[in-house]
Structures are given as structure tokens and as C-alpha cells.
Amino acid sequence: MNREIEQLRQQFEDIKKDALQLSASLDDAQFNWTSSPQRWSMSECLAHLNVVDGLDLPLIERAIQHGGAAGWTGDGPFRYGWLSRKFVSLSESPERLKMRAPKVYLPPSAKPKEKVVSEFLSIHDNLLQLVAQSDGLDLARIRVPSPFPLVTFSLGQRFLLLAAHDRRHLRQAWEVRENSGFPK
Questions:
Q1: Dist CA 84 CA 90 (whole Å)
Q2: Could you tell me the end-to-end alpha-carbon distance of the chain, in angstroms, rounded to an integer?
Q3: Residue 92 gets which letter from DSSP?
Q4: Would the N or C end of the chain have less CB density within 10 A of its end CB?
Q5: According to the model, what pLDDT value does residue 116 have?
Q6: Parallel, antiparallel, or unpaired for β 143-145 and 152-154?
Q7: DSSP letter assigned to residue 184
Q8: C-alpha 51 chain-centroid distance
């Protein structure tokens, strides 16, 4: 496994562990608690990631299949463009750029913890499989479409973007849990 793939694998493993640690001792009421109607609950933070990451899975899978069929291989290290690197850094926590989630990415509210967390873990298991399938491919050459018209990212940057976005919203979920009004 090349170094970049191993780093991606570790990032998604860490994200799974963080989500489990966040939610482990909570009941449904705590998991769905929010400090105000304008703020997301922990459930909504993770459900948002389920929506975003779940929509990206088939796009990434197709890109991997296409790149493999085309014989686009590489060992890295891979170089990525300035704009996509900037986009990834802006998606990291702490947030430097606040954006409202597009309607297609809005999470459902008040879902049971078990359903949200199990879906999160399943999606991240699928992401880990896709990372493993990417080993040996040219992560910079293979392009993955985004939900935004005319915008694509390299496969490596798409994985990095998902990991950064996941960390951002997990941090947001931890802030809910650390709120002074959070029910104990």
C-alpha cells in the first residue's frame, strides 16, 4: 500500500473512531439535542455526512473503475492543483469559511442514534474499501465529478476533501456535546 493510500485509510479509520466515541454513551434525546433551532444536533451533523458521503460513493467508485480500466497507475507522491488544495483546507476544522449546505445535502432531523451511527459506519467502511481499491492508481490523474456543475476533483483530493469535511462536522457535533446546556 503506498504511503498516501495508507494516510487516507488512517484518516477514515480515525473518523470512524471519533464518531463512535462521540455517540457511545448518548441516548436518542441527547443525540438529537440542539442549543437552538438554527443549530444542528449531533444527529444532524452525522446525518449530513451520511448524505454527502453517500452521494459521493458511486461517483468515486465509477472514477476508480474508469481509471483502472484506462490503466492510469501511479505510486505517488501525487501533486494536486492549488485550487483543489485550497478547497480542502477551507473544508477543514476549524472552519474558516462558513457555507450553508445546499438543499440536497440538508440532513433529516430527529433520527434515532443507532440508525444514524450505523449508516455512518457503513458508509465509512465503503469509503475504506474504495481507498484500498485505489492503491496503485494515479490519484492525481483520475477525476471525480462533484455535485457542482463543471467542477471535478482528482481522486486523491476527493478523498482528502471528504475526510476534511467529515472532521469539520464531527468537530461541530463535539461542540454540541460540550455546550453548557447539553442534557447530562
A1: 10
A2: 44
A3: S
A4: C
A5: 97
A6: antiparallel
A7: -
A8: 10
The cell numbers describing 40, all together, are 444542528
The tens digit of pLDDT for each residue in 45-54 reads 999 999 999 9
3-state DSSP call for residue 137? strand
Residues 137/72, Cβ–Cβ less than 8 Å: yes
**pLDDT value at residue 43:** 97
The closest alpha carbon to 11, from 165, 172, 163, belongs to 163
CATH class held by domain 3-177: mainly alpha
From residue 158, give the alpha-carbon distance in Å to each of 51, 63, 140, 179. 16, 11, 10, 32
Mean pLDDT of the region 107-123: 93
Strand partners, 143: 154
Please write the tens of the pLDDT for every residue from 55-85: 999 999 999 999 999 999 998 889 988 877 7
Q: Minimal CA–CA distance to 2: which of 162, 132, 154, 144?
A: 132
Backbone angles phi, psi at 154, to 5 degrees: -70, 160
Q: Are 155 and 142 in contact (CB under 8 A)?
A: yes
- pTM score of the predicted model: 0.92
Domain spans, the chain: 3-177
